[in-house]
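Bump. Still looking for Cytochrome P450 structure tokens.
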Amino acid sequence: MDRVSVTLLSSSSTAYLMVSCFLLTLLMLLPELKQKVFVRSEVLQALRQLIGSVGVTFGSGDITEHELEKLAPGPKNYPIIGALKELNGYEVPYQAFSEFGQRYGPVTALRLGSVNAVVVNGIDSIKEVLINKGQHFDSRPNFRRYQLLFSGNKENSLAFCDWSEVQKARRDMLVPHTFPRNFSGRFEELNTIVVDEISHMLGTVRDGTTVAIKPLVLSICANAFSQYFGSYRFEVEDERFQQLVRNFDQIFYEVNQGYAADFLPFLLPLHRQNLRRMDRLAEEIRTIILETIIGDRYERWGEGSEPCDYVDSLIEHVKAGRGPALEWETALFALEDIVGGHSAVGNFLVKAFGYIVQHPEVQQRIQAEADDVLERHGRQVIELTDRAEMPYTEAVIMEALRLIASPIVPHVANQDSQIGGFTVAKDTLIFLNNYDLSMSPQLWDAPESFQPERFLQQGRVVKPDFFIPFGAGRRSCMGYRMTQLLSFSIIANLLRAYTIAPIEGQDYRVPVGSLAMPEQSYNFHVSARNC
Ligand code: HEM
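Sorry for the wait, here they are.
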């Protein structure tokens, strides 16, 4: 791009920014200006009067007053911004959603910018959406940002696509890989891969030094995922590997951010530059994966070849022309999404270690549990099969998941339906308030404090029904078992070998409401254990 067009572009962006800021300021002042607003209850009132006077008929039948009253209550919606300003002033928007629960009950209707939404609070109503009426609510938001992040088509994405036969097939194809059964061949393979990767990385950690935890765990997770799903191990020093891990992490951070532009599309041009950057990062990931994990596997695949890993399953599906038809291009997006799942585990682990380093007594209990198992079995490393004998370590993972309280990816109604008896129109965006399920004082004692014991009863791990950090139903997380297995192995093996300690003056508070951690995160002091 020449210099003139760059100048033009930046000056038009500046003008756009100024106009948008002016517009937003004006909109925020609207209540003070006492403009007329669109409020559901007022519309209801008007309709009631209409029915009372002339007996109107809508659609296929009469709408009775009783049916109209099934519209959910909610805050005031202002022109253009809707109820967006209600989310101001909270550390996590879901805290505002919990407030709605207190004020309006389990189902709150509101407009966010141009998007009609409902917020669902409480496990009964959330299960109604995810399970009982799962097929009414299995679409995902159609944010322009998601389209741009996945090469112009969000259907390429496993997590942001709408439900379809292709999505069902993609999920079915993943199950044997992401949910390996205990003691199965894949389970054993995963165990060997993870343990080897941890040993390799721990070999680089020197006693008495300071370690940046994020690159360490991301490397372990990335190479474990690449080997397990694609039978390819990177040299950790390979520049392509470093770039792959970095790019995935930056995209993971991006998709986990909420933007006002999702609801106010006129703000999207402000993100154009960043979205272009994401597009470039995604292209680089594609190139690296084609050069390394894929190589010439697609061309070499022939009749009679037996699938050995997830890459083979995808190639086989495409080449054998199995239904529903899957283009190789689409299959590659699925592979990238799954290999990219390592960022979720890595970021989660950074936060889990953030809690552990603040609670030396928790660290000691994990170490004691690990030492005990190793002594009993006469081994040097913790295996995945040891999970059953290390309930405290499992409880630490659950407690970290609870406190982080990352959101359930929003759903969208694909047809007119009802939640908790309230009418929900097709295309309504559904927020399921997982934050409240994880943090409500009605559900947990001292919800703000880190107490792994809350998940233990008589030495066994017990998960309450209302604890659903991975969602539920037909759009539930495809990676929760991988998360549980890898987190267990990495926490147990790392703390078996080292004690981590905070560095004076550093801030170890764990940001909540999202899994993603910024690129620069915690450093720990590590000392080797004599065992
Ligand atoms: C701490 C780690 C993780 C957490 C807390 C988490 C949480 C979630 C949640 C809440 C959902 C939405 C569920 C719903 O809509 O009902 C989801 C979806 C999904 N997750 Fe995870 N996840 C994690 C790790 C992973 C990993 C490691 C992978 C890949 C191996 C993965 C793959 C997916 C996919 C593909 C979906 C979309 C499923 C669909 O829409 O059909 N996740 N996850």
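Residues 1-66 have pLDDT under 50 and may be disordered.

Edit: fixed formatting.
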